[in-house]
Amino acid sequence: MTEILIEARRLVKHFEPRGLFLKKKSEAAVRAVDGVDLAIAAKETVGLVGESGCGKSTVGRLFLRLLEPTSGQILHKGRDLVSLTPKELEERRRDLQIVFQDPFGSLNPRMSVGAIIGEPFAIHRLAKGAERERRVARLLDLVGLPRAAADRYPHQFSGGQRQRIGIARALALEPQFLVCDEAVSALDVSVQAQVINLLQDLQRELGLTYLFISHNLSVVRHISDRVAVMYLGRIVELADADILFKAPAHPYTRALLSAIPPGHPRAKRDREKLKGDVPSPLAIPQGCRFAPRCRFAVERCRSEDPALSIIADGRSVACHLVADGSLSVPPRLSPHSGAAA
Amino acid sequence: MSSLDTNLAHEALPERQSPFLLFARRLLGNRAFVIGGSLFLIVLVLAVFADQIAPFKPNANNFRARLEAPSAMHWFGTDHFGRDILSRAIHGGRLSLFIGLSVVLFTGVFGTLIGAASGYFRRLDNILMRIMDALMAFPAILLAITVAATLGASVQNVILALGIATTPHTARIVRASVLVVREMEFVEAARALGASHMRILFRHILANAMAPLIVRLTYVFASAILAEALLSYIGVGPPPPAATFGGIIANGRDFMVEAPWVTLFPGLIILIVVLGLNLLGDGLRDVLDPRIRV
Amino acid sequence: MRDYLLRRLISVVPVLFLVSLMSFAVIWIIPGDPTAAFLDASSTPEDVARLREMLGLDKPPLVQMAEWYGRVLTGDLGQSILLRIPVLSAILERLPLTLLLATLALILAVGLGVAAGTFAATRRGTWADQSVMSLALLGLSVPDFWLGLLLIVVFSVQLGWLPSGGYVPLLDDPLGWAKSMVLPTITLAVVQVGFIARMTRSAMLDVISQDFMRTADSKGLSGLYIILRHGLPNAMMPILTVTGIIAGALLGSAVVVEQVFALPGVGRLIIGGILSRDYPIIQGGLLFLTVIYLLINLVVDLLYATIDPRVRLE
Amino acid sequence: MSMLKVENLTTVVGSGVSAPSVLEDVSFTLDAGEVLCVVGESGSGKSMLALTIMGLLGFPVRRASGRIILDGDDITAGGASAWRQRRGRDLSMIFQEPMTSLNPIMRVGEQIGEVLRMRKGMGADTARRRAIELLERVEIPAASSRLAAFPHELSGGMRQRVMIAVALAAEPKLLIADEPTTALDVTIQAQILDLLRDIQAESGMALMLITHDLGVVAEMAHKVMVLYAGRVAEMADVETVFDAPSHPYTQALLASIPSLDSGGDRLVTIPGSVPGVGLMPKGCRFAPRCPHVKDDCRSGPPPLAMLGPAQRVACLRPFGYVRREEGRV
Amino acid sequence: MSLRLKGLAFAFGLMTALVGVTPAVEAAGGEIVIASVQGPPSLDAHVTNAQVARNITLHIYETLYARNENAEPVPDLAEGVSVSDDGLTYTFKLRQGVKFHNGKEMTSADVVASIERYRKIGVSPALVAAIDTVSAVSPYEVAIKLKVKQSVFLDNISSPRAPIAIYPAEEAAKGANEIQYIGTGPFKFVEYKPDSHVTLEKFADYVPNPAYQKRDGLAGKKEVLIDRVTFRFIPEAGARTAALESGAVQIVETVDGPTAERLRKDSKYVVHDVLPFAFQVIKLNHAQAPSDDVNFRKAVQAALDMQEVMEISYSGINQVDGGWVFPKSAFANDAGLDQYNVADFDKAKEFLSKSSYKGETVTFITDNLRPNVDIATVVQARLAEIGVKVDIKVADWPTTSKIGFTKTGWNFWTHGFGIEPFEGPGTVMSAFVGGNAQMVADPEIDRIAKEFYATLDDAKKKELFKQFQQRMYDNMVAIKAGNYGLFQVTSDKVKDFVPFRIPRMWGVTLAP
């Protein structure tokens, strides 16, 4: 593996209940992120998948210190972001950027596209006047928008175009690391493909590193080098994309993958049906947090919290059964391998 | 320069369209706004050019022409000083509008500052909002009457009283709006870019939180004119000989039966101005508030 | 629900404290003292000094304030300087009228306003909608004191149908009472009818556009049933909030109406207190009105929580 | 006889002859026990189709022409109130957002019960018993205790189950599900889809499932209708659509979806985006984005031509299956 | 009027009947409702000199001496008085058989206690300032010893200003405002609902003063022919009139000129002119520039057109009169009147140029009573013509009076002098003694007043008063704008009403 660009260590984020009066002791904090370790190498794409409420977006924001972690570290080029002064942080932010999900909410409707893309230059006093215009034009070129877009306003663009604007803004400061938080989820499939291609092209050309957060497993599979699966504030499995999708190890990953509809009507379906709903992050179960829904769970699972440990193929899994070999990792093909052959 | 799908670049871009122009065009297409705006504009023009338009001097006494009924000479009749009601009403618009505008400025500035501070800086929120709660719980009219009655009736005191009375609600509206906008992703994007609090607050949050404030301010304008009239009527408005709508009504109320025109016409004018402003506010709300839009 | 109630009750405390501080500030700011009410212009400064001493006004303000808080905490609002009766009984004596007036106006405003607003919302864009809403706007724009004067001229002086003012106790003469309340109630309610009608319409339009209304429609329920059973309860949320604010506004406007129609209510008591510098009345009255306002809002919040189970979780 | 027969349905926004259409000339049939998936991107008119059939269009959208024949009766004939009589009883619908589709301040039991009482004429007790049965049918645990729950006390999946129970309450002949799983997590989506399929198979009702997710289509559909910009682009049975998509749009749509099986390949894209209402091109509505466009495509709407026994395509020159490996269409 | 109105009047009557303690049983008598502008600050007569209080309290309480129709002191509760030769001891002989409302008979103990109480807490201490001791000589005789000879002592003891009302001794032992409202007057107190009404009813055991044949001012034969009187407080002028016209009230204490004019044409009402009722005075602050300059003060006087001033503020009920007593007074004279109502801008400018005025803004304070505000407004417009800028400050009475009794913050202050001219020249003078009103003592006035109080010689008093009036103009101590009056309006059902400055309800009957 190449040099590590950014790394989360024992990252924890609890949201405390708010209120001045009558704060009850029993009122638990929302344990959105509950001990996440994740190292991302330069120029790779790590996919972060999980169902809603699993804490994946919170992890993305913690990586950029848009949220203050409750505990843990975020090491970027050897420095812990948490320990940075506001001034230093402002400098670091040039290296770390984010692309958001909502193509409507992520652009200030009162600013022209030129002003939006040029704002990073204004904030960091990097370029003014004609120089700023030139740089904005270059960014527009980069994301495949006409230069004339600069004096239009966000409401005049379609969802895909807006997403390009958001990408251009994120790229303005020439960052190394980009968090894509559900960056294509709100787009129609035909447009989604355009943006995915754009992100891949940019990565190749600019040497970017991505943390690609999405609930859409196909998209994650498509774009990621490695994939981390989150469940209730924890990473339960982390592996190369190919390995993970071909042979998921963690019972949750298996269930998750098998829940995806097939790519073709004739595809085989042997679905591992998951019972019940995801528990609330207010009341995380004892032991393995997936145990209550896990069909393999044994007594140990309900009492002892499994750590994320490395097994074969350089993959890490947080499961007692996988770790002690009692649940074999089937070197099997994807359940949908019959499709579209 | 790249191997990207540059085909998007060829997609026809719509005409350059600033949100402000768009906004203006939509406003002009809004019937409530146009009617309200016209009513308000008429009163505004009358007020601004009162010296040129009013047929008489507003404070010219003529005790030999007291309480004359409306006639060709005095369209709205005269009051018990023998002053021309029409001229006083036209001049009265000037002061009433001035007071209304000042109250709007007062509540706009302080309401925005307090609302923005408590919406953005959560630490200030509790204390600021408790103070606003207290001010809101304090009966506004009584507050205004107390301030104006006891500190002496003057234009400044009326503005101060109404300003204090209207600010808490304005602050709440701005706060609510800020709370919504601060959760929007473009705010987070600005933070990710390293923007300062001030830049985020003014450039991003306030710029997008203004719509409810603007609507609120037109209603404040309307209610300030009503409240000013009420204070003048109670006898704690701007001191004489200042002509204000409420003052003229107050002057006439003792002769309500004998000379109804003294109270009738200024009241109607208040009604028209307030109606105009409310319509104006409705129009702005329809255009600014996307929930109501079809 | 009990926690919710408790939380709401506790949040009232700092507000009450601030209000009491403000009413003291009012007293320190305003010039003049209660002696002026007893004396006419020909009185000499010696007369004034003598009366001041007699009325116990020569203590420093901080002492007065400390004494006042000491008493209020035991439920004693003090004695009126002018009326020479306990402030609380002065207020309680006036309260029924003001509350009655405000309640009647509120009932009228909410009843008529909600009906009109709902009617208009369900006929959005039609001439019926427009005429109802124009009337509402007109009501909202009319200066209430002026309307009161006009009503007196028309219904009292010209037509002679209704009394021009004065209060008739209900138990003494129900018909007279009803007649005496008509004009004040209308005067007080007109603005709020307009306000609530507009509020209801927009709340109702909001609700109508929501998914669950479409669900209700997809069930094939009748239009009226959907509006009444699904629409209105949901639209009541913002209306209730506004009702709380309006109740406060009504208590304030009641002052004006009490003045115009010569009704002995709390508003006039406080205005009289202010004009005569009857400090205990001012403080007690303002505190009392505030408590009522807060109580109303508490009730509104509880109603809110009753109607909308989600609120209790907050 | 088909359970549902839709003929030349056109739905427009606003009044007047020139009112822009959101649905144009849509015709199809659906048999009892059959699942029709309506596929399309945002702006394709698929939700409008559902609402038009339900008679739930709100001002200013209205059905301009066309007939909807349900079980032999033209439901458009009797006017709004007759249509209303059909809803809940013959026609039911499930919506995309389980969070907002239930009345937030009404107990779940009452929301099911009111259909039973008002549409089936049941008494309170019977309705209550039936409601419990329905909740059990949609696999809600502890059904009887859930009657008193408010929607916010349930998870998204549970709410969607409640919605299904509401829709099934009066045993409809046709159930329309508009993106019923889009707002749900993938594991919950699987549960709901299974449930829908089971219920449909059991009751024999016709199911019209609206989705943008081709995976859902592959899993659920018997027949597929691809809508583009308010027009039917292609209609076929499900295997034909996946094996031999003939409309350039269908082809591109299938090709632009990343595959689960192989990562990294460059995705096929469709340039541009769906035109907005009122901005429709004159001829074939896909023409501006179509890689095979010729001049005649722009002259008039292409007819929906029969291409095979189970396939109809609205394209002047439909062509055979293009393998994905060939890259860009 | 319509039947409906009659029904309303009936309902109203019924209502008011039920308000009270005892229902009205006799067919005769009936109830009169008087519409007043506002309620009294107190019904303890000793502690308030407000006009509104006086109107009511003088029905409940009586004084030893009271003013007759011509404002002269005449015996009321006293049968008479004997003055010792040195003029220092006044021995009042009390009427016997006078009953308090609580049934007890009035004796000298009550009188002594009441006067002692007044000396302690009465709000017009000047009235009793000369008293050294008060003592009961016998159950029906009270002796008052003075410290110095005082020419106006009987005037004082009979003053209605804040009347030295005789209370029962046990009430007189109570503090200010703490008494029960028990007097000897022809009406007894029933109830006071602040901001609503005061109700009085006929005191059945009242014994009219046998010394008189008919009513005479506040003394005379007080014979009550009605059952009840209610003073109803209606602040809105329009509502007051409306109440009269709807039959809800029978008497309106005061109406405005235009209203009076209208009602006069209607035979259902009788409009009574009470003129003169009071002076309208514009006080000038001699302690504050520029009104510290006599030429400036004269410039103001010269600029004013008193007809305009009076006609606008008191339309139809005013006298343009510069004298410092009412015209019919024996003290009336024309000293200084050549300087009154000149309305000459040139002359005013001439005075102004001699003054130190340099264009600064002059402050005119007034309370929010409409006529006072009107006067300020007229004066402002008038003075603008000679280049004097006037800033009007309207506040409520407490604020205005607070400022008006200090040396700074004001130049002009206008209000009515009601009771002073009624009480007589001595009281008018006292307002300016020691710089009371003008803030700087005027030695000339102080001298004149001192001599005036000390002499019992009528001719000398008249001469001294003439000097006083001359001095008022020569030094322009204060400006008298004119006299104003009141329109009291009664329904035609109210018979035998004789207007007086206090609407007396004795001797009045009510037609059914």
Describe the 3D structure:
Chain D: It comes from Taklimakanibacter albus. Chain D: This is ABC transporter ATP-binding protein. Chain D: Keywords: ATP-binding, Nucleotide-binding. The complex is a heteropentamer of chains A (341), B (294), C (314), D (329) and E (512). Chain A has a domain at 250-341. Chain A is 30% helix and 20% strand. Chain A contains 11 helices and 12 strands. In chain A, strand 4 and strand 5 (79-80) form a beta hairpin. The radius of gyration of chain A is 21 Å and the shape is globular. Chain B is mainly α and 294 residues long. Chain B is built from 12 helices and no strands. Chain B has helices at 7-10, 19-28, 31-48, 50-53, 85-120, 122-137, 140-150, 155-182, 185-192, 197-234, 245-252, 260-288. Helix content of chain D is 30%, strand content 22%. Chain D has helices spanning 46-54, 79-86, 108-120, 124-137, 143-146, 156-168, 186-203, 214-220, 238-243, 248-255; strands at 4-13, 21-30, 35-39, 61-70, 73-74, 91-94, 174-178, 206-211, 223-228, 231-237, 305-308, 311-313. In chain D, helix 6 packs parallel to helix 7 (186-203). Mean pLDDT of chain D is 85; it is low at 320-329. Classes of the chains: A alpha/beta (341), B mainly alpha (294), C mainly alpha (314), D alpha/beta (329), E alpha+beta (512). At the C-E interface, helix 2, helix 3, helix 5, helix 7 and helix 8 of C face helix 1, helix 6, helix 12 and strand 18 of E.
Strands in their spatial order, largest beta sheet of chain A = 6-7-8-3-9-10-12-11
CATH domain topology of the domain at 102-276 in chain C: MetI-like fold
Provide mean pLDDT of chain C, rounded: 81
Assign the structural class of chain A, choosing from mainly alpha, mainly beta, alpha/beta, alpha+beta, or little secondary structure. Answer: alpha/beta
Q: Roughly what percent helix of chain A? A: 25-40%
For the largest interface, the chains and their residue counts are: C-E, 62 and 63 residues
How many separate helices of chain A?
Answer: 11
Number of strands of chain C: 0
Whole-angstrom Rg of chain A: 21 Å
Number of strands of chain A: 12
Low-confidence stretches of chain C: none
Spatial gap, N to C terminus of chain A? 33 Å
The biggest beta sheet of chain A is recorded as: 8 strands, mixed
Q: State the fourth-level CATH superfamily of the domain at 102-276 in chain C.
A: MetI-like
| CATH architecture label of the domain at 102-276 in chain C | Orthogonal Bundle
CA-based gyration radius of chain C: 24 Å
Could you list some keywords that capture this structure?
heteropentamer, A: 341 residues, alpha/beta, eight-stranded mixed beta sheet, four-stranded antiparallel beta sheet, 30% helix, globular, disordered C terminus, D: 329 residues, 12 strands
